[in-house]
Amino acid sequence: MRASRTPINVAQQGSFRHADGSLVLIAGPCSAESEEQLLKTAQQLKSIQGISVLRAGIWKSRTRPNSFKGVGTVGLQWLDMVKKETGLRTACEVANAQHAEEAMKYGVDILSISGRATVNPFAMEEIAAVLKGTNMPVLVNNPVYPDMGLWLGALERLNQAGITDLGLVNRGFAADEQYPYRNHPRWDYMLQLKDMHPELPILCDAAHIAGRRSLLYPVSQKAVDLGVDGLLFESHMNPAAALSSPQQQLMPQELELLINAIRTKVKLEGTNHLVEQLDDLSQQMDSMDKALVELLLRRREVSQKISLHQMGDVQEGPQASGWQKELDAWLRRDDYTGKDSSFVKSLMDALQQHRISPQSGIGSTAVA
């Protein structure tokens, strides 16, 4: 992976790193849903020590077309009203130049560049052009997949437009193995970037990494232990009624308890070393996956040698019959009952198909 070492000009007294070392805390609902919901949530968040920025989703870049897409421009009007009522600074995510223009028109204080925009140099050029000549604070979310060049490229384009009040957000990455996270944190990747550009503030979006309340504390504490400058949370006055991502939002009272636990490093019940244990298990699975691929490649070599001694495909006869008996024996084992049996059968069928046609290659048959 190649990454640019181009210097990035970052404001010394920017919005995303406190001089006293205290955490920058940004919180608010996943989506602005109504004026009342936004105001009541903001009023409760304002009472939490350290929270000075209200974030709310205005436009939701959804993978599926029928999902809730956000309220749009009217939500910016609500944000402006809440800002005047509470004195909190406001932030929202933008994915294109039009979003950025509208957000600035309604006085949003901080723009957060969507990870879907970070991966698109054309979108970043257009957003940077809109911001040129302003002193707008901007957070840049990591690209959906780990690509250091795209992340830094987005920052460099903003820098070239004169934007220096910059910060990065680690909201987690798409990965082949996500569990137990919604988005994998890739702490190693974040630390690599931190080492390359120590001048850049880095915030952790605990909500989008965790994806569920039970992981919010351990993810947040891990991020703080690794030296992030701030944390982003999703908070809703009634998460159960939220129109988007209810499982990763906290009531303001719950969020206050979590933040106090992070400050005091008092472990919340049931979360001791949870992230470390999960990361260790994830690494074990990675090692097993690599070993499995190596074993399958060795199996292919043996299968190809067998095919050299046979004139044609081995589709019927004693081998096929023996294979079926072997499969039946596997499925009768106590540890392959229930839902695992369908996985084992699919895997064994795929292996048998590859055994019949070894020249086709491992990748030719999908394993469920």
From TrEMBL:
The keyword Transcription does not apply. InterPro entries: Aldolase_TIM, Chorismate_II_sf, Class-I_DAHP_synthase, DAHP1/KDSA. Transmembrane segments: none annotated. Residues 19-257 form the DAHP synthetase I/KDSA domain. It comes from the Bacteria. The keyword Nucleus does not apply. One of its GO terms (biological process) is chorismate metabolic process. PANTHER family: PHOSPHO-2-DEHYDRO-3-DEOXYHEPTONATE ALDOLASE, PROTEIN AROA(G). This is 3-deoxy-D-arabinoheptulosonate-7-phosphate synthase. It comes from Pontibacter mucosus. The lineage of its organism: Bacteria, Pseudomonadati, Bacteroidota, Cytophagia, Cytophagales.
